[in-house]
Amino acid sequence: MILFSRRNLHYTDYKWTTYTPTDPRVNGKPDATPFAKDEGNEIVYLINKLMILWDYRFANTGNKMEKLIHDKLPEEVSTQEDVQQWLKANLKF
User: Fold this and answer.
1) Burial class (CB in 10 A: 0-12, 13-18, 19+), 36
2) DSSP per position, 25-91
3) DSSP designation for 8
4) Is the pLDDT score of 62 beyond 70?
5) Can you give the pTM of this predicted structure?
């Protein structure tokens, strides 16, 4: 199920690398895979996974996640798991 897509993104300065469908950067569950916050496909993938995991249903929630990642994610937060934990601690409604 896709809740958040490229067209929902607020920012337009992402790179759009082509990944194979089985690439762990855009498939599976958030894990120790390195995360690139400037890569649009990785942003869309992770936001979707977390929205499903946390049972969020609205694109504006994905936009809040995107803005936090884009504007405030510390450099040392570098894996999908780290981003998940950081967002959990910093996503406020």
Assistant:
1) middle
2) TSSSSS-SSB--TTBHHHHHHHHHHHHHHTT---HHHHHHHHHHHHHH--TT--BHHHHHHHHHHH-
3) G
4) yes
5) 0.93
- Alpha-carbon radius of gyration of the chain: 12
Q: How far apart are CA 40 and CA 85, in angstroms?
A: 20
Closest CA to 26 of 40, 38, 13: 40
Token duo for residue 73? 């994610």
Instruction: Give per-residue pLDDT as tens, 8-30.
Output: 999 999 999 999 999 999 999 99
- What percentage of the chain has pLDDT greater than the value 90? 91
For the chain, report the end-to-end CA distance as a whole number of angstroms: 23
